[in-house]
Amino acid sequence: MSGWGPPPWASTQLPAVEEALGRWVPGAATDDLAQAMQHAVLGGGKRLRPLLVLATAEAVSGNVLQTLGLAQRDGLLRCAVAVELIHAYSLIHDDMPCMDNDVLRRGQPTVHVKYGEAVALLAGDALQTLAFELLAGADASWPAATRLHWVQTLAIAAGAGGMCGGQAIDLAHVGQAMTQPALERMHALKTGALLHASVMLGAVAGGASAPQLEHLSHFGRRLGLAFQVVDDVLDVTADTATLGKTAGKDEQHNKPTYVALLGLDKAQRYAEQVTDEALRALRASACASPEALQGLAQWVTRRQH
Amino acid sequence: MSGWGPPPWASTQLPAVEEALGRWVPGAATDDLAQAMQHAVLGGGKRLRPLLVLATAEAVSGNVLQTLGLAQRDGLLRCAVAVELIHAYSLIHDDMPCMDNDVLRRGQPTVHVKYGEAVALLAGDALQTLAFELLAGADASWPAATRLHWVQTLAIAAGAGGMCGGQAIDLAHVGQAMTQPALERMHALKTGALLHASVMLGAVAGGASAPQLEHLSHFGRRLGLAFQVVDDVLDVTADTATLGKTAGKDEQHNKPTYVALLGLDKAQRYAEQVTDEALRALRASACASPEALQGLAQWVTRRQH
Q: β-strand B104-105 against A108-109: which pairing, if any?
């Protein structure tokens, strides 16, 4: 099972995601801020969060990118891009010297290395703003209430009660032992909240029923946990060239991880167990076309970087 | 005319603004992130932007905080708080060592001095998110389209085409001469965009007509320019104790300012001229109750800090 790449479905969707990212991230080539934003967003990446948005919408309502009208397709791509922009902004700020002080990301110099710290700070700030601007500006063929729901879902996931809050817990525990429940609470916020939000944005866009939203919410939370456990495993087992970012930095920074807590074998088995729970929740949602989302969930566990 | 304080109208509104800020900025007292957010937001400040939101809504539609239903009042206060949160986040990030490296703000240590750079970075990030969360979450007695319009107005003002973009131009011109048009373009983005957005949020909430929106938009832009010219003057004429932030730092950082460009006397006269233009635009809007907004505009020019 080595060498698992993204599922074939992902490759059919990625061109639309990349095109939308390129269209909405400002492109004045002479401007440091715009260049830094582009460097952060357009330099590759798995695009897991946008793919989750699209796959969840498809699970609920069928092959949406092919069947939606142009204006509606635009709204769904805005959701996909918005979560990726929040993710990209968080990486810029996390890599800065006052946080993880990392110099390499996706095999490229990090934004502050290339453009300086001040521009990196602003580029992260502006990418966060752009995410909300995009969601609010979606085509009026999406009801205003749906667009507001998107803004609210993303904001709750990204803020002090979500991603930023998890990052703050992480900062406060460098060099300290954490129990497994505390570690899971931290990661549910730090990385889980945005992955969960990706699923929920897609589910709302796809028109999921209340019981479906509940099962998909559980799916999103277990998937977020599986993602983080695998992330900790890869930090130990993969090399820097494969990861595109500095390997071994968790241990170097003395960070609490699932590998530190459970050992490598148990952490790997735990990732598979949590993925199985996610897949059970997805089955329970009784979505009409869950195949692409199933494939993404399996890829999260088997990925090599 | 020395010693101009805020107009009496402002004092009657400030308790509601301060109460709303305290209610919406998270308060878990044991948490560094929440404490840093509170330190940045609740440590005083002129609250000019929230007051502009309320005064513009009142100009258009009468004494709104007193006459609106509770749920509608809540929505208007969310607008007022949201612009203040964007302002507060920008101050945290601007004060950081990689930007202006300032240690004093409103007479208190800046957030990174008190909580460290990493927490300051996160607190700014989370305050930005909270602004959009608040706007999207306003009571349903405000039409969803209005709430979306608020999100969009604030996002456009705060992002790469507004405040962050102006900050990037500022960074790129430290130590360089700027022409007056270039300086005005920079400030129209850096500080003007958010002051303009405050006026527009209040105007939309107050139900302004299309011609009123146009005149109020012009009012907001001239007011934003007047504010910045006065800011440059005060940096030279006021002392650190009165300002509550380090005086003389523009010259120390070799920043282009209106004082550097025009000299002190001409800069002061220019501020008054631009304020007069703003007041003419306000009269042209034919708002029913413009007195409070007039008073705020005059305070902007005559303020001592």
A: unpaired
Handedness of CA A20, A22, A27, A33 (dihedral sign): positive
- Architecture of the domain made up of B8-302: Orthogonal Bundle (1.10)
**pLDDT per residue as tens digits for the range A129-163:** 999 999 999 888 899 999 999 999 999 999 999 99
With beta carbons less than 8 A apart as the criterion, state whether A151 and A132 touch: yes
What was the ipTM of the complex prediction? 0.94
Query: Which pLDDT tens digit goes with each residue over A282-301?
Result: 999 999 999 999 999 999 98
Q: What is the pLDDT of residues B198-233, one digit of tens each?
A: 999 999 999 999 999 999 999 999 999 999 999 999
Q: Please give the pLDDT value at position A72.
A: 79
Q: Give the containing element (helix H, strand E) for B267.
A: helix B264-284
Interface of B with A in 105-124 (CB under 8 A): 116-119, 121-122, 124
Architecture of domain A9-302: Orthogonal Bundle (1.10)
Q: Mind telling me how many Å the CA of A35 is from chain B's nearest CA?
A: 11
Q: Report the percent of chain B where pLDDT is more than 90.
A: 73
Closest-CA distance, B264 to chain A, in angstroms, reads 30
Calculate how close chain B gets to A146, using CA atoms only, in Å.
9
Whether chain A has a CB inside 8 Å of the CB on B94: the answer is no
Torsion of CA A227, A233, A236, A242, to 10 degrees: -50
Q: Which residues pair with B153 in a beta bridge?
A: none
A53-84 as b/e: b if 16+ CB within 10 A = bbbbbbbbbeebbeebeeebbbbbbbbbbbbb
> Best residue in B132, B146, B154, B253 to probe A by mutation, most A CBs within 10 Å?
B132
> What DSSP state is assigned to residue B142?
S
> Can you say how many angstroms the Cα of residue A113 is from the centroid of all Cα atoms in its chain?
23
Interchain contact B16–A (C-beta under 8 A): no
Q: Which of A136, A161, A167 lies nearest to residue B148, judging by beta carbons?
A: A136
* CB contacts, 8 Å: A34 with chain B: 160
Q: How far is B25 from chain A (nearest CA, A)?
A: 10
Q: Are strands B108-109 and B104-105 parallel, antiparallel or unpaired?
A: antiparallel
Domain ranges of chain B: 8-302
Interchain CB contact of B96 with A (< 8 Å) = yes
Mutate to test the interface with A, among B83, B92, B98, B253 (most CBs of A within 10 A): B98
* pLDDT tens, position by position, B250-299: 777 777 889 989 999 999 999 999 999 999 999 999 999 999 999 999 99
